[in-house]
Specification:
By secondary structure, this protein is of the alpha/beta class. It is about 40% helix and about 15% strand. Helix 1 (about 15-25) packs across helix 6. It is globular. The mean pLDDT is about 100. Bound molecules: flavin mononucleotide.
């Protein structure tokens, strides 16, 4: 099984990208998790699209999503919603046929605040509905107070979060395989 894991954060020491690395480390045999970032995706502009179509960075991400059995998105929370870079990426992806149509998508996130991206995750679910994705309803995964769980390079060290993450990943894989 091949899963693409997209980080909604651009910074190198991102705790959200760190969550995806933690998932890679615990992936069971037969499951590969490829991390994708949103670097290089320009701001959506209808004039640029009319002149040159989708930028290469969007085409690449589109192809990786289409080739995957499942998609994981780790989103930070910016001002009670998803970061602009993530929304911008979904806007580009939605153009000319969504690669997320009927794709199984798992959402998680890490944030500084106590809710651990709860508000952002619900905005992302709504946004992905527009791209016809199928999002896993449960279990959910929130990592709040991320400075107590991730080191300065964004690596997850909190053992309880690692255990919850492992349960979450197994539930996600099951949900893809069984297609309930
Ligand atoms: C513009 C901006 C807005 C933010 N808004 C929120 C917020 O609404 N809720 C929250 O819990 N944290 C908020 N934060 C703090 C982020 O949770 C924190 O920076 C987090 O580490 C970002 O994710 P990352 O580690 O993957 O970069 C905000 C940070 C930025 C830069």
């Amino acid at each position: 099984m091949n899963i693409i894991a997209i980080s909604g954060a651009l910074r190198k020491a991102s705790s959200n990208t760190g969550l995806l690395r933690a998932l890679q480390a615990i992936a069971p045999d037969g499951v590969t998790i490829d991390i994708a970032t949103l670097h290089g995706i320009p701001l959506y502009d209808g004039d640029d699209e009319a002149a040159s179509g989708k930028p290469q960075a969007v085409k690449d991400l589109d192809a990786r999503i289409r080739a995957a059995d499942g998609v994981i998105i780790a989103t930070p929370e910016y001002n009670f919603s998803i970061p602009g870079v993530l929304k911008n990426a979904t806007d580009w992806l939605s153009r000319g046929g969504s690669p997320l149509k009927w794709k199984r998508v798992g959402i998680l996130g890490a944030a500084d605040g106590p809710l651990g991206t709860g508000r952002a995750q619900y905005h992302l679910r709504q946004n992905l509905q527009g791209l016809e994705a199928i999002t896993m309803p449960k279990p959910e995964f929130f990592a709040g107070h991320n400075s107590t769980k991730f080191d300065s390079e964004g690596n997850l060290f909190d053992e309880d979060s690692k255990r919850r993450l492992e349960k979450w990943l197994h539930a996600f894989i099951d949900w893809i395989v069984k297609k309930p």
